[in-house]
Structures are given as C-alpha cells and as structure tokens.
Amino acid sequence: MSNEHKEWPLWEVFIRSKAGLDHKHAGSLHAADAQMAIENARDVYTRRMEGISIWVVESKHIHASNPEEADAFFDPAQDKIYRHPTFYNLPDELKHM
Amino acid sequence: MTQVSFEASFQKKIDEEIMIEPQDYMPDEYRKTLIRQISQHAHSEIVGMLPEANWITRAPSLRRKAVLLAKVQDEGGHGLYLYSAAETLGITRDQMLHQLHTGVAKYSSIFNYPTITWADMGAIGWLVDGAAIMNQVPLCRTSYGPYARAMVRVCKEESFHQRQGFEIMLNLSKGTPVQKQMAQDALNRWWAPALMMFGPLDAVSPNTAKSMEWRIKRFTNDELRQRFIDVTVDQIRLLGLALPDENIKWNEERGHYDSSELNWDEFWNVVKGNGPCNKERLATRVKAWEDGAWVREAASAYAEKRKTKKAA
Predict the structure, then answer these.
(1) Do B275 and B263 form a contact (C-beta atoms < 8 A)?
(2) Which site among B67, B88, B93, B99 would you substitute to test the A interface, given the most A Cβ atoms closer than 10 Å to its Cβ?
(3) With CB atoms 3.0 to 4.6 Å apart as the test, which of A18, A39, B128, B261 could cross-link to B124 if both were Cys?
C-alpha cells in the first residue's frame, strides 16, 4: 500500500494576496510537477480569494541559514542601534523630519 | 552544549513563549508527541469528510448542497495543512497515510458514528465543529510554529462550518413538529460524543501534563469540555430544544453547568475500533487511496515524460 519512493515531491507555496504586496510563504504541498503544484496551491491555499498570484518552488531547492548559528550569524546587526531613526536625540521643535 | 543544557534552553524558550521552528533543537519526546497529535488531527479532518459526504447528494436544496460541498472541501484542505505541518517534523506523507490505512494511527472517534438524518448535518456543524473550534483556538498559540500557523488558517475557515450547522438546526427547530423532532434526535445523539471529543478526563489523560509543560496544549481536556458545555447550553435554549442531559444544572458555586458523567467505556470502546462505523470509515478511506493509485502513477509518469522531453 505504501510506495515511499513514488511520493510526489514537496513544494513550498508563496502567494501574493493583492497587487503591490510581496509573495508570502503560505505553506507546502505535494505535486508531481510545477503545473500541478500551482493548481493544487490554488485549491488548498486560495479557496477564499486569498491570492492573485502563486509561486511554487520545490522544497529541496530552498537553502536556509542555520538556526544553531543564528546568534553569531545575526550578531553584526545587534550593536548598531544608530541605524534606527529613534537613536538621534533632536529637539521637539524640529518639524518635517 | 550537553544534552541537559539543550533541554534546559529548549524549556526556557518555551517558557518565554518563543515558538519552536522545524530546524530548532527539540527533545525527541516533544517531536514524537507533536507527530502523533498533528497526524491524528490531519487524519480526523480527512476521515471527517466521510460522514458528511454521505449527505451531499441528498442535501435538501442547491444552497445546502453548495455549502456542504464547500465545507467538505475545506476539511480536505485542513487535512493537507496539517499533514504538511507534521512533515516538517521528519515523518513522510506516505508514512502517515500508511499508519492511517493500517489502523495504527487514530483519528477522532466522533467520525465513527453514523449520520442517519439530514439533521445530523446540522448537529455536526454546530456541535462537532463547535467542539473542534473550542479545541483549536488555543492551538493557534501552540509552541510549534508550523502547527500554530496551520491552526490559524483552520480556525479562520471553520467559523462558517459551525454557523451553517446552527442555521440548519434553527430551520428544523422552527419547522414542522416532525422536523423539530429530527433536530432534537440529532442533538440527543451527538451531545455525548461531542463532549468526548475533548478527550479522556484529566485524571486519566496520559499526555496532558507534559503537553501543558511544553505549551502544546494550553488548557486541559476538562477545562475545554466545561467551557463548551457552558456556551452550548444557552444555544440549545435559543433553538427551543430540550436539554439532551437531564442532569444539566447551573451550579452557582462553581459558576458552571453541572452535567452527567460521560460513558467512558463507550469512549474507549470506540477508540479501540469497535464503534458503529470504524470498519466502514477505514474501508472507505483505503478504497479511495487504492482506487486513486492509477491517477498518482499517471501524474508521475507524465511529469517524468515532460522532464525528459525538456532535457532533450
């Protein structure tokens, strides 16, 4: 009954909910090929008009940063609060800035 | 880090309400518990399509038929969200289906009861989906990210399931005496099985303590069951139906409704496979899977053919 070698590949689904917004990860699904993945994604993730555009990419093609090294990896940004506008102490009278 | 410090930092994250994601460290037991719970949940959605599919061709109007089709299609979708969430924990789709089809994996016992009248479609939407929502809303904040995200989707979609069920009950309750009796009968039959959906009593629930500590569960079975009784009693009165349990009484001291002890022998008996429809449901599921084999093979062959054509 179970034919593991025949399981359809896994795809990650990204959906643009309306024009002007980014495609956002919605979830994943199995499909034999890209066309089927797009059609299945429509049925699984946009039954209530949640999207106007769908991207699919086979999960095996996603490369990710390593969560175990996340602290070191993102460390360079941690001590640079001067990259944020609120770092600068300016007089309240200052307008339009 | 040692094993002990891994586990300590894991529990610290949980206590600080930081979500666990697929590639993060997690204790084996946490992983196993989640695989069991999420796959059971997925199986319940898929098997849950069967009792209602029974009525699609006999729905009393085109509107009811369209609604029921949409609901059953949602349940298929919910099963797929959940299977995907479980797969992030390292089990394959085929393994899960194999466990379901060979009876190794469980699904919610409620789906092993028969749907004998149209009023059962009302009672299922109202009570069964209602109980499911009561269970699922806290799961939107469960500690495992993919499960929580799947639950957010499911909860958003499930609200209509409950409302359409209540609407069916409301129409029947306001209908002819025979229709009202049909609604009452459905309520009487589904009441106790719906309460059992929250699982065994806390005192004998083997997984509750650990699941609470890991914030997989946020409330115990008994807490959720009581909450469901408290909100549903008023809904029964709104329908103008008789309470399905003569021991339902407001308890001033507790601030909750009291009710009869459930028949837990029946519960365990259905869990063990001896409910009225266990065999039928599983056989239908297995047949659908086997009958679909040629479709899966054809799609694979077609994809393969197109790939080689492109390469040439």
Answers:
(1) no
(2) B93
(3) B128
Its pTM stands at: 0.92
Could you write out the three-class secondary structure of B152-204?
A: HHHHHHHHHHHHHHHHHHHHHHCCCHHHHHHHHHHHHHHHHHHHHCCCCCHHH
Q: Residue B234 phi/psi, 5° resolution?
A: -65, -35
Which range of residues forms the domain containing residue A48? 3-64
For residue A51, give the CATH number of its domain.
3.10.20.520
Report the C-alpha gap between B309 and B307 in whole angstroms: 5
Examine residue A93 and state whether it is found in any structural domain, yes or no: no
Using alpha carbons, select from B176, B172, B201, B200 the residue that is nearest to residue B186.
Answer: B172
Interface of B with A (CB under 8 A): 21, 23-25, 70, 73-74, 77, 80-81, 84, 87, 92-95, 97-98, 101-102, 149-150, 153, 157, 286, 289-290, 296-297, 299-300, 302-303, 306-307
ipTM: 0.88
pLDDT per position as a tens digit, B272-294: 999 999 999 999 999 999 999 99
Q: Give pLDDT < 50 ranges for chain B.
A: none
Domains of chain A: total: 1
What does the CA dihedral B5, B7, B13, B15 come to, rounded to 10 degrees?
A: -110
Q: How many CB atoms lie within 10 A of CB A4?
A: 10
* Residues belonging to chain A: 97
Q: For B86-174, where are the E strands, in sequence order? A: none
Quick check: is A59 in a domain? yes
